[in-house]
Design a protein that fits this description.
Length: 192
């Protein structure tokens, strides 16, 4: 029980750290496209990424000897993001949206920004036993719901929260690298 809660909390932390860019975009988009449209698009994108990560993890989990090597993906993405940050430290990568942007277009924006979340969560879930996968999925889903609520509330305090989110976003590549190393180490979670 405690192991499942800890694994769910770890998945939630991974989800939050790889979605800080989505949170910043959600706060900005709620101000532009409206709260309902922005939060709905965010929820749709988050749900699709969670479903895809779990489905992929279940499929990859059928090859237990190779599962740990999936950690190379988040390590590579994290290293690339870290290198990109070091080359262009002041660049803002958020695309621009208009007031009449559809939910579909906004959801697609969030999907394109969620590849890091997918790349980190998939091997994390694939490296775990099925019961732990469910705990991880639930933890990540709660984190996604919390981010949606925070984005909705944060739009009212966008100036203060936006700078805080931008600073925390700089940590995301390191979290991706550490998560990849965790999976690559093929830890004892797959023995439990």
């Amino acid at each position: 029980m405690a192991g499942g809660l800890a694994f769910g909390a770890s998945a939630a932390l991974l989800w939050v750290m790889t979605n800080l860019d989505n949170l910043a975009a959600l706060i900005a988009l709620v101000l532009v496209v409206g709260a309902g449209r922005g939060v709905l698009a965010f929820a749709i994108a988050q749900s699709l990424v969670l479903i895809a990560a779990m489905a992929t993890a279940m499929g990859v989990g059928m090859m237990p000897g190779w599962t740990g090597y999936l950690g190379v993906i988040p390590i590579g993405l994290g290293a690339y993001a870290l290198w990109h940050q070091m080359r262009r430290p002041d660049q803002d990568d958020l695309p621009q949206m208009g007031r009449k942007s559809s939910v579909l277009a906004t959801a697609l924006l969030f999907l394109t920004m969620s590849t890091d979340s997918f790349a980190v969560l998939t091997p994390f879930l694939a490296d775990a036993q099925p019961g732990y996968r469910i705990a991880g999925l639930v933890g990540a889903a709660f984190a996604a719901a919390g981010l949606a609520m925070l984005g909705f509330a944060g739009a009212h305090a966008a100036a203060a929260l936006g700078s805080w989110t931008h600073r925390l976003e700089r940590v995301a590549p390191i979290v991706m690298i550490l998560a990849g190393l965790y999976v690559l180490a093929n830890t004892t979670t797959d023995l439990i």
